[in-house]
Design goal:
This protein is mainly alpha-helical and 140 residues long. It has six helices and two strands.
Length: 140
Amino acid sequence: MTLVPAQAVDVNVPRFNQAFVAASTGVAFIVDAPWLVAAVAAILMVSRLGGPRLSPLTQLYVRIVRPRLQPNGPTEFEAAEPPRLAQLLGGMFLTAATAAFILGFDTLGWALTLAVTTLAALAASTRVCVGCMVYKKVAG
């Protein structure tokens, strides 16, 4: 039995979420679909404000993906707070991008979206999470 520290998360949950964000916002840019950016922003904000139980991505990973990859459960954990801040920051940036699209500032909207896409892809592929670094810097 693996002991799970309080306020810890399976390391694969944030990576799965980041991969989804990178892929979906990248597709949104390629096909010029600001509505998809708004949908991802909504998913991230609902996830962050509602917690893991209301997070569609976390639930998808925990209920469908993880049982197939890790039938005995997760084996590696990390502190939950840094990736949660990163998710909140990503959601806020995508919400700002959505507002920019609505106001007709498409270039700004895509710039904000591509910043999130790039950082999410970096985190998903290398575990270098800039939002997590911000958390650690601020939290001390």
